[in-house]
Amino acid sequence: MDFADAHACLQKVEPLVQCLTNKVVTNFTANALLAAGASPAMLDTPEESEEFAQIAHGVLINIGTPSTEQYGGMRAAIAGAQGHTPWVLDPVAMGGPKLRSDFAREVVQQHPAAIRGNASEIIALNGGAGGRGTESTANVNDALAAAQELAKKTGAVVGVSGPKDLIVDANQHVLIEGGHPLLQKVTGTGCALGALCAAYLGAYDDPFVAVATAHAHASAAGSVAVRSASAPGSFAVAWLDALYELDGAAIANEVTIK
Amino acid sequence: MDFADAHACLQKVEPLVQCLTNKVVTNFTANALLAAGASPAMLDTPEESEEFAQIAHGVLINIGTPSTEQYGGMRAAIAGAQGHTPWVLDPVAMGGPKLRSDFAREVVQQHPAAIRGNASEIIALNGGAGGRGTESTANVNDALAAAQELAKKTGAVVGVSGPKDLIVDANQHVLIEGGHPLLQKVTGTGCALGALCAAYLGAYDDPFVAVATAHAHASAAGSVAVRSASAPGSFAVAWLDALYELDGAAIANEVTIK
Amino acid sequence: MDFADAHACLQKVEPLVQCLTNKVVTNFTANALLAAGASPAMLDTPEESEEFAQIAHGVLINIGTPSTEQYGGMRAAIAGAQGHTPWVLDPVAMGGPKLRSDFAREVVQQHPAAIRGNASEIIALNGGAGGRGTESTANVNDALAAAQELAKKTGAVVGVSGPKDLIVDANQHVLIEGGHPLLQKVTGTGCALGALCAAYLGAYDDPFVAVATAHAHASAAGSVAVRSASAPGSFAVAWLDALYELDGAAIANEVTIK
Asked: What is the tally of structural domains in chain A?
C-alpha cells in the first residue's frame, strides 16, 4: 500500500481540517494535525460550521462530550460537507449513553467518508451490544463482520483501532500492526487518529489508502515514541514529535501490513 | 497508613471515573487518571450524566468553569451517584464569584464522599471569607478547624492542599508532606488530585485512606518529577510519568506522614 | 526598550489575568501565564465575568471558538473592564466566518488596550479582506498601514505576529525579530501571546512597552526552546520552560529590535 504517496500529498496540500470534537482532546488533536502536516480549525458552533465545512478539506465529527450547541454545529457541518468535503465519524462510547448513540445512528446515514472507532463502538454502531465508556470490551477480530456490514451499508471506509488496526471497505480489508500499548495510556490518541483520517481523506484521492495511511502514521509514531519514552507523559510528547518526523518511507518501515 | 494496599486496589479495579470538571484541565485530568491506573470518562451533559454516574466507580464535580449546561450535568451526576457511587466536590474559587459559591453550598448537602480544595476554598465553603481566584490566601493550618467542622457536618473526608496536605474526617486528621512548589506552576495539578481522590474512593473501601493515598500519590510524583525537571513544562510531563511509575511502596517512601 | 523593567514588574505584581479564550488553548494558555509569572483565571460565563473583570489585572478576549454563552461572558467581561482593567482583543480568524467577524467589529469599539493577531486578521479587522482559518495569508509588512490606522481609530496598541512581530501604536512602531518557525507547529502559541499581552498590560504602566515585552518574551522563549527541541511536541514543552527561565536581560539578548 502506497503510504509514501499519501503522505507526500498530505505535506503538499496541508489540508484544512475542521474538527468538531470532544472537550478533552481539542488541544492534543490540533497539535497532532499540525505535527503531521495538516492545518487544524476547531470550529464547531451551529452558526459557523456549515459555512466552514464547505471550505475545509476534511471534517471530523467526534461525539465524545457533545453539548446541545455542539450537536447543532455537527449537524450544520455535516450538511455543509455533503457532496464535496469528506467527513469522518468517530462514535465515541457508542452503545453506551443513549443520546449520543441515537445521534450516531442518525448521522451515519449521511455519507461519512470514514468511520473510526474501537471494536465495541463499531459493533454497536452496526446494531450490536456496546462497551463501557471509551474502552473496548471486544477485540478487533470480533469487529470484522460488523465493520464489513457497516462499510457496505454506508459506503464509508471503516477503521477499527486496537492492538492491531483493521481497515475495511465494501470490497477489501487490511490489518496494520504497529504502535505500542502506551498509546492507550494517553488520552486522545484515538481521537487524534480520527482527525488524521480526515486530513488524509482531504489530501488524497483513494479513501481506503487515505484511512490506512492515517492509521499507519499514528501506529508508526507510537513505535518510534516508545524508543525514547517509557511512561505516558513523555510518550505523548514523543508521539507528537514522531508524527512530525516520520516520512512516508519510515511509516511503511515501522508497521506490518497483513 | 496503608498506601500500598490502596494503590494495589486501584491497579486491580481500574476504576471508571466520571469527571465533570473545568475546561482548562480536562485533558490533563484524563491523562493523570490514566497514568495512575484509572479510566477517565469526561462526560458532563444533563442528558447523560445521571445514567453514567450510576455505572461509574467514582464521580468528580469541579466547579472551575461552570456553564449553565454543565451545572445541569452536575446536578444529574450527583443524583445518579446518591447511595452507591462516591463523589468528590472540588469547590474551585469558592468564596469568590457568587454563582459558583451558591452552587457549592447547595451540593455540599448531598453527601459528597470527599471535598478537596485549598485552605481558602475550604474555609469559605464552611462559611468563612474566601480567597482570590484559584489561589489560596490562607494556609493549611488556618483551615484545620474549618475542615473538621465541614467533615462533621457533611460526613465527607476533607482534603486541604498546600505545601503540606491536610486530610480530615470527623474523627481523625493527618498531615502529608511532600511534593514541590513547581506543582503550583502547572495548571490543573490540584484538579487532577480531585480526580485521583474519586479514583481511590471508587477502588478502596476506607474513604479516609483512599483520600490520603490520592494526596500522597500526587505529592510523591511531584517529589520524583523535580529530580529530572526544573521548569514547569518538563515538570508537568515528568509528573505524569511519575504518577505512572510509582508503586505503593515508593509512594510511602516519598512522603512524610504526621 | 526596557524589557527588563517590564519583566521585573510582572514578577512583582503576579497579575491575575482573566482569559475568555477558545477551547483549544485553555490549558496551554494557563500554563504559559503561570510559567511567565502571572496568575491565570479562565473564567468566562455571562454570570461571573463582569464581576471578575473588575478585580482582574488584565482580561483577554480571544474569539477562536465562541459559543453563545461565551459571547455573553465576553460582553460582560468587557463591560466590567471598562475604565480600569486593560483588555486585549485577539480576533482569531477575523474576516473568515461572519458571526465572529461581526462580534470583533463590535467590541473593538470598546477601548481594548491592545489588539493582537496575524497580518490577515489585523487587515480584516481594519476593513480589508481576510485569510483562511487561523493562518495568515498576508505578511507583517502588508499589515503596517492597517495596524497604524487601527491603532489611531481605537487607541489600542496593535501587535501583528509573524516571522517578525510588529508592534504599533498611534505614534510609533517597532519590529521584533526572534522566535522560530516551530512556533507555528504548536497550537496556541499565538493565543498564549495574547494572554501574555494582558499580563504585561496589567503589571506595567506603559502599554506600548508592555505589549512589546510580551512579544519579545514569547519570541525569545522560542529561540531558546529550539536549542533543545527539534520537533513540535518537545518544542512546546521547552517553550513553556523557557518562558519560566528567561529573565529580562535574557529576553533582550534573544531578540533583535528594529
From this structure: 1
